[in-house]
Design brief:
This protein is α/β, with parallel strands linked by helices. The chain has helices spanning 3-25, 43-56, 74-79, 95-98, 101-119, 132-137, 143-151, 168-173; strands at 33-37, 60-65, 85-89, 124-130, 158-162, 176-179. Helices cover 44% and strands 16% of the residues. Bound molecules: adenosine-5'-triphosphate and magnesium ion.
């Protein structure tokens, strides 16, 4: 064995023992709270990826879309056939399109009621609150209400929250927080949103 191979072997051995230690230490078993935030692309995509993962095992999943940003959504169209998936969508369009605070608040409250039902249902394995961060930011929903529903959810239920500028109380209580960092986005170079890629 060359010097380089021997060094590699030893480095891998050390790495394996670190990984094994961490795996052995991770013994707590319960549902988790994940926050996908930041300005980079990928938050909603990652949430739907996890939805697909959970549905793949036959678990029940609820998705609540708080901003109907794109009318179309390829993942929803494909996965909605799955009887284990329930999707609730806020009834209005872009908040910057409706420009009506009262109507937006009402639409938000209505879809939040669906979210609360899912968050209280012990049959639901995973709930996604897509773009809920904006509801808190605009004041359509208050943080205490959301926190209470999250804290009181069944212990086995996992929740994913997506959206930019996540409220610090949400990131503080989350088990996993991922900040998508924008290095570059095609849109800023004039490329239009692409079907099947961006929505
Ligand atoms: P995606 O749905 O692609 O995972 P996202 O959830 O991280 O994106 P949002 O802010 O919810 O980000 O984006 C909504 C739409 O805007 C999507 O079509 C997405 O591809 C696009 N988008 C995401 N990030 C950016 C960005 N940094 N600049 C411009 N457009 C973006
Ligand atoms: Mg998104």
């Amino acid at each position: 064995m060359s010097d380089r191979d021997e060094r590699h072997r030893r480095a891998m051995q050390t790495l394996k023992s670190h990984v094994d230690d961490k795996v052995a230490a991770a013994t707590e078993r319960r549902g988790q709270l994940l926050v996908f935030t930041g300005n980079g692309k990928g938050k909603t995509t990652a949430a739907w990826g996890t939805v697909t993962r959970a549905l793949g095992y036959g678990y029940r999943v609820g998705v609540v879309q708080f901003i109907k940003g794109q009318w179309e959504c390829g993942e929803r169209a494909r996965l909605e056939e799955d009887p284990n998936l329930e999707v609730a969508i806020m009834a209005t369009g872009f908040t910057w399109e409706t420009q009506n605070r009262e109507a937006d608040t009402e639409a938000c409250r209505a879809v939040w009621a669906e979210a609360e039902r899912m968050l209280a249902d012990s049959e639901v394995y995973l709930t996604v609150l897509d773009e809920i961060t904006y509801m808190l930011k605009f004041g359509y929903l208050d943080i205490a209400t959301v926190k209470r529903a999250l804290e009181n959810r069944p212990a086995e239920q996992t929740v994913i929250i997506t959206g930019r500028n996540a409220h610090r109380e949400l990131t503080a209580m989350a088990d996993t927080v991922t900040e998508m960092q924008e290095v570059r986005h095609a849109f800023n170079a004039g490329l239009e949103a692409r079907r099947g890629i961006d929505y």
